[in-house]
């Protein structure tokens, strides 16, 4: 069992270097570095340097689409959701929701660009962190846009189909995928990510028979792993 942690909010290389060396000393094997829309626009080289300095310690690096489009986990700002209203999810009443739709061709094209840039960082894998539809205290239903409705009529899950497509793109470029789901907590289990399972037909990836790596997401889980 390998132990992972996330690391974000710092783009000063000398501080990153000191921090990741300490993480390695503490026994961590994997670091999840975030690659937000802001990083995509302003900090591509910096993130490449962060990946390099982390890998120099001997740790693996997973790169995370932190809050991208409001589709993935993370509280950061989404420029795509603000400036591309035609990409937004649609509520049952027809109103637009403040997050991009994973089924929308425009957003999918944006994710192709993000994926290519993420692989260029040199990370060992792309960590698809909690892909989800928008939800708040009032809205907890799937998207009702025409693209999601078309998928539903074909019996295809929108999130699962999106994940399959982005994972296929990573694989076609020689990269590896790590999948995460917010459904894991609802299933009453600690493990939420499996590395090396590539048949991303749906969110049922946790049934993988031969996972290479499993990661307990929270500090409680890490403490249990360390015994």
Concise overview:
This protein has 227 residues and is an alpha/beta fold. It has helices at 13-25, 37-42, 44-55, 79-83, 105-120, 146-153, 158-172, 183-186, 219-226; strands spanning 4-7, 30-34, 60-64, 88-90, 96-100, 125-128, 177-180, 191-195, 213-216.
Folded structure, characterized:
This protein is of the alpha/beta class and 227 residues long. The protein is 38% helix and 17% strand. It has one domain: TIM Barrel (Alpha-Beta Barrel), CATH 3.20.20. The longest helix is centred in the middle third of the chain and has 16 residues, at 105-120.
Properties at a glance:
two-stranded antiparallel ribbon, single chain, seven-stranded mixed beta sheet, disordered C terminus, TIM Barrel, alpha/beta, 9 strands
Annotate the secondary structure layout.
Layout: E1 4-7, H1 13-25, E2 30-34, H2 37-42, H3 44-55, E3 60-64, H4 79-83, E4 88-90, E5 96-100, H5 105-120, E6 125-128, H6 146-153, H7 158-172, E7 177-180, H8 183-186, E8 191-195, E9 213-216, H9 219-226
Parallel strand pairs: 1-2, 2-3, 3-6, 6-7
Antiparallel strand pairs: 4-5, 7-8, 8-9
